[in-house]
Amino acid sequence: MRHTTQKQREEKHKEPADAGARGPPPSQWINHRTAIENFALTLKTTAQMLQVFGARLATTELPTGVLPTEDLLMAHTRQRDKLQDELKLLGKQGTTLLSCMREPVTKPPASKPNPSELENAATMERLLVQLAETEEAFSQFWSEHHLKFHQCLQLQQFEHNFCKVKLALDNLLEEEAEFTGVGDSGMHVEQLLKEHKKLEEKAQESLDKAQLLALVGDQLVQSRHYAADSIRPRCVELRCLRDDFVNENQRKDDLLGKALELHRQLETVSRWCEAGIYLLASQAVDKCQSREGVDIALNDIDFFSQPKI
User: Fold this and answer.
1) Which of 62, 264, 290, 293 has the fewest CB atoms lying closer than 10 Å?
2) What domains are there in the chain, each with its CATH number?
3) pTM for the full predicted model
4) pLDDT (tens digit per residue) in 88-106
5) What's the CA gap between 139 and 120, in Å, rounded?
6) 83-88 contacts: CB < 8 A, separation 24 or more?
């Protein structure tokens, strides 16, 4: 039988000098490396998807209608939200994986980090930095794309509303131009004033829309919209059309008001003349045969001719 020496027994129970730096079990290291490779592959695949999506957005032509633009922008937003959710989920997975690598379950409390653990953690950190850079680049690209399409939609909505409001103002100016007469009697002028008032009430909604749309255009110009040079003259035109109608409406209203006052004065004079004719015709001839009768008749006529205050 072979006897074990004292030295051999001591070496058998002696702890290695670098026991504190002993790495994790091979199975755990393999799991971490596999997880890193899977994460890196998923990150690469996601980045490629973002590139494809970005290239498609960059080559998309701006639609020519409000509804097509809204539909396309909503579709792009849904795709962007889906990719962004995948990036967030990937970030959470990577953070969890890095945490596991930094605090292995099997690590003794007093042990020191192992080079293989540090290498895995460093690799994972680099991948998370790459993920963050990818996210930031995609976010910047999306902001520019969304701004371009959003401004396109704003322009189309402005142009659509501009055409509607301009048509309404043009029609109102045409109706205003039809009020050419001033009436041949007080009743006729009063009827014209009522019709003119109805036109003014009818026009108020379009006038308000024109004013509001011009303000919207001003805001678009101030926000440095890419089509500011075409929006600005539209705002000027809206205000000119609105002012043209308001000024012409006020002019016609003043004219009809003066015509009504003139007809009322003419009617008053006409009634006075009729009353004077009646007064003269009602004087009895026999009353004028005496001095007293003549004086009475003259006094009646003089009183009638005096201005009534």
Assistant:
1) 290
2) 25-150 (1.20.58), 179-284 (1.20.58)
3) 0.67
4) 999 999 999 888 887 754 4
5) 28
6) 83/46, 83/49, 83/50, 83/53, 83/138, 84/138, 86/46, 87/46, 87/131, 87/134, 87/135, 87/138
